Amino acid sequence: AQTVTQSQPEMSVQEAETVTLSCTYDTSESDYYLFWYKQPPSRQMILVIRQEAYKQQNATENRFSVNFQKAAKSFSLKISDSQLGDAAMYFCAYRRDNNNDMRFGAGTRLTVKP
Amino acid sequence: NAGVTQTPKFRVLKTGQSMTLLCAQDMNHEYMYWYRQDPGMGLRLIHYSVGEGTTAKGEVPDGYNVSRLKKQNFLLGLESAAPSQTSVYFCASKAGWEETQYFGPGTRLLVL
User: Fold this and answer.
1) Residues on chain B touching A34 (C-beta within 8 angstroms)
2) Dihedral sign (CA B51, A53, B35, A91)
3) If DSSP states are collapsed to H, E and C, what string results for B3-39?
4) Mutate to test the interface with B, among A10, A54, A100 (most CBs of B within 10 A)
5) Are the CB atoms for B15 and B63 separated by under 8 Å?
6) How many CB atoms within 10 Å of residue A102?
7) Residue B103 has pLDDT above 80, yes or no
8) pLDDT band at B1 (very low <50, low <70, confident <90, very high)
9) pLDDT tens across A30-59, in order?
10) According to the model, what pLDDT value does residue A4 have?
11) Which of A43, A55, A75, B29 is buried most, with the most CB atoms less than 10 Å from its CB?
12) Which chain A residue has its CA at the smallest distance from B101's CA?
């Protein structure tokens, strides 16, 4: 079974600074997708960024970027120029190609200090 | 632009009662999913559907049933609610060609 581990239950960052959230996963597959979702207090799950395992280039979306290390099975999220609105729970997720069972990590609660 | 909606937003049940949670999406998505979220854990897949009239089990299907009679709706049923089913339930949908799932706002269920 595929498992996703987020080793940081809580993180905090100063506004305008950079923070990195860690995620590791366990799989024997070669084709899969990785995601970071944000869950603010409203509870809505919002996609932040996704990465296809077959792509070597790290995905970026404005202030959000990932460091995808396939051999190490690591998928960290970097948030640059942190804003107060970035405060939320962040979930890392894995989904095998051609499979509907998406596995989530336990989440990291990010606090942004003004 | 509703996206994915869930009804109800919050519900309290007594042990043994039954109820149905409704998920609706207006994006013409083929795939729909039901997850539960418990404290200290990520979302876990209960059941999913790859198209109208089809359903399949996810990671934690016991105690739940689902139906997809219409493409835009995905119903999650609890026949005899148990306190262990106290959770926040999320519905999601995605297009067949896409990798990203779009989530509803969640339903908080408390079983006493």
Assistant:
1) none
2) negative
3) CEEEECCEEEECCCCCEEEEEEECCCCCEEEEEEECC
4) A100
5) no
6) 27
7) yes
8) low
9) 999 999 999 988 778 889 999 999 998 999
10) 94
11) A75
12) A47
Q: Would residue A69 be called left, alpha or beta, if left means φ above 0 and alpha means ψ between -120 and 50 degrees?
A: beta
**What is the CB neighbour count within 10 angstroms for residue B33?**
25
Distance from CA of B55 to the nearest CA of A (A): 11
Distance (Å) of CA B41 to CA A23, A25, A103: 14, 15, 11
Output the CA torsion sign for B84, B85, B89, B91.
positive
Backbone angles phi, psi at B84, to 5 degrees: -65, -10
Residues of chain A whose beta carbon is less than 8 angstroms from a beta carbon of chain B are 4, 33, 35, 37, 42-47, 50, 52, 91, 93, 95, 100-107
User: Using the beta-carbon criterion (under 8 Å), do B99 and A47 form an inter-chain contact?
Assistant: no
Tokens of B68: 């997809």
3-state secondary structure of A40: coil
On chain B, the residues whose CB falls within 8 A of the CB of A52 are 99
